Amino acid sequence: MSGITVKFWLLVGVFLATLRFQVFAAAVSSNVCTLRPLGAGEDDTDQVSVRKRIDPNRLCASMLTPPCPRRPGISRDRQLWAVRHHHLRGRRIQHHQEDDVELGFFSSRDARVPEREWEFQPDIQYWLNANNTYRVVYIQDQASWFVVTGTDFEIDAFNSGGINGNGQPWWDYYTTVPRLDGDGRPLALTLYNVTAGRVTNFRIESPPFWCNAVAESKNVVYDGMVCNATNTNPEFYGQNIVPNTDGIDTYRSDSVTLINWDVTTGDDCLAIKGNTTNLYVANITCRGGNGVAFGSLGQYVDLPDIVENVFMEDMNMVRLASYIQPNMGSGVYFKSWSATVNGTPPTGGGGGLGYVKNVVVQNVKVDNVTTPISLYQTDGAEAGDAPSKYQFEDLTFSGFTGTAQENTIVSIACSSAAPCPNITFSDIDVAPPSGEAPMYICQNVINESGLPAPCNATGMP
């Protein structure tokens, strides 16, 4: 393996607490380089040798060469890993135990924070400066803290490693400051331009914005992901002060697998955005928020959004105590913009074309959600807008059980300019509030079948 190389570009994140970084060579197990923390207020950035080439047979010579340099200062930089893992032939990046490559970051600032996390300090104005984050997710001009890009790799955090976003100060701050799409709030973990990448057993605590995004990628597997956006400030109990903390947004990506997720959020548990194809989702628990979203879609008038071949199964929507998170919107819902262009993205838009086709959602438990199954095509719309021309077709829903907060169990409101063909239901057994009859609303739907009662514009028999 003497010719094996890995490239890491580290635009190193914020490690103001204790930091240890270890790299283990595959071929020379004794060749271990250990970086010791410089202490509070010191800058550990230079210790990981930004944009250096790593040769596993000459790690200390090419990368670290102990004793490591010590320079004062505070590092707040974004972080990018570029992994050319086809040179590694099946190696793994581990965030817990020794193996070919181990990255161990420790936080001692707060006893409640588990070890081995990347901790990003809540210097809000610093991070809102576009120069201090990485912009690789085109949709709505999102900012990223930690970006991984490359081929044929696995990152394993062993259920104890991950990212701490210190979101509470951000959430408190935005109770008095308006939130806007693209305003610079950073998403925690981004996979960008990845082929055959795998993330396993990863945790993201207190993200100020989205937990994850995958963009411009293919053949990606996330197996085991915990995202937790829970307000702990009693001043705001009973309010949703954690919007936009999506578990993941998928964009311009093919053959993505999401399995074994647990997401506590005030927004979309999963958000399937434009040009997501061949997506498999299984064993997902969504705690609070809006449920699983397809959209929003059609925001960019010059960029078609295509979502096709999606299979979801075994999902559980759990309503939390209202003082923690008042919302639990849907099991699954779909949304597109109208046909009228109102402003420009990231805050405005509309008029985009495309379609969602061949979607199967099955075996979903809902716990007192507002509307278990929903579709609407007026996202971002204003009075008098032209009806959307975005197309939804070939949608299948089966095996929905549980309870709804309201009596509308299904609400499919398709556009008059793009009626929805082939909407199929089976085994929809969700109970409305006691004493109320379930309602099923269908507008501009062609070839609907399988509901236990008529589905029409009024929801009445």
UniProtKB/TrEMBL annotation:
Residues 1-25 form the signal peptide. Its EC number is 3.2.1.67. InterPro entries: Glyco_hydro_28, Pectin_lyas_fold, Pectin_lyase_fold/virulence. It is found in: Secreted. SUPFAM superfamilies: Pectin lyase-like. GO terms for molecular function: galacturan 1,4-alpha-galacturonidase activity; polygalacturonase activity. It catalyses: [(1->4)-alpha-D-galacturonosyl](n) + H2O = alpha-D-galacturonate + [(1->4)-alpha-D-galacturonosyl](n-1). It comes from the Eukaryota. GO terms for biological process: cell wall organization; polysaccharide catabolic process. Keywords: Carbohydrate metabolism, Cell wall biogenesis/degradation, Disulfide bond, Glycoprotein, Glycosidase, Hydrolase, Polysaccharide degradation, Secreted, Signal. The keyword Transcription does not apply. It is an enzyme of class 3 (hydrolase). One of its GO terms (cellular component) is extracellular region. Gene3D superfamilies: Single-stranded right-handed beta-helix, Pectin lyase-like. Belongs to the glycosyl hydrolase 28 family. Specific in hydrolyzing the terminal glycosidic bond of polygalacturonic acid and oligogalacturonates. This is galacturonan 1,4-alpha-galacturonidase. The lineage of its organism: Eukaryota, Fungi, Dikarya, Basidiomycota, Agaricomycotina.
